[in-house]
Design a protein that fits this description.
This is Lipoxygenase domain-containing protein. The chain is mainly α. 47% of the residues lie in helices and 0% in strands. The relative contact order is 0.09.
Length: 58
């Protein structure tokens, strides 16, 4: 919910609300609905440079 009886009173509150909406509609949706390990778990599909260890389990 929106703090302050449903009224947005500061730019920080607006920023937090919009950030949450954008995250939920993009990153969270993609993480929940697209098979990332199945696509990138195969070594030939790895990016050219890895900054961490590759995934080992689903």
């Amino acid at each position: 919910g929106v703090p302050g009886n449903g009224h947005i009173t500061t730019n920080d509150q607006l920023t937090q609300i919009l950030t949450s909406i954008i995250y939920s509609c993009s990153v969270a949706h993609a993480a929940a609905n697209f098979p990332q390990y199945e696509e990138y778990g195969f070594p030939l599909k790895y990016p050219a440079m890895l900054r961490g260890k590759p995934p080992t389990e689903t």
